[in-house]
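Hey team,

Filing this mostly as a record. A colleague (T.K.) asked me to run one chain through the structure pipeline before their review meeting, and I want the input and output archived in the tracker in case anyone asks later how it was produced. No errors, nothing strange. Just documentation.

Input sequence:
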Amino acid sequence: MASTSDFKNGLCIEYNGDLYTITQFQHVKPGKGAAFVRTKLKNLKTGKVIDNTFNAGVKVNIQRIERRPYQFLYNDDMGYHFMHTETFEQVAFEKELLNAPDLLKEGQNVEAVWHADTETPLYCELPPFVVLEVIYTEPGLKGDTSSTSSLKPAKLETNAEIMVPLFVNTGDKIKVDTRDHSYNERVKE
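Output structure:
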């Protein structure tokens, strides 16, 4: 058990039966009345952010979470299979635990967040950017080689489809933002 004086960004607490991380907090001592703490809490399962106010000195349950490195092996009807990069233990995650399963390729390193007390996986994150090869896109038009205002669909090596600028061609390697599936830049070999 801890109190509101122990709050810090990134701290994981149990609130209303769910696990939340504190993304922002502010201790407030008004001129009249009792002190309180305003917080923004992010639900670890749904990702939803809520505002909450705690009275100063309230006891909260701190939960221990661990970040573990994994490498993607393959996926099948049982889920997405990963190997812990230090212990070589293999584990399967459900698709819902991954933030961008369509951008995952074999050998990709990810970070899984586990609830340490119950040994249950909470979510699995890809790095912010991944480099993937374009396996099909329509050819660009001559003269549109430097314009990034127009976009066209492109199919990537993981079979994901994203929008790319007109100058991107089949066979190019591009950097893709895993948070919003957007094109970032073309990668030079």
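Quick notes for T.K.: The mean pLDDT is 90. The chain has no helices and 16 strands.
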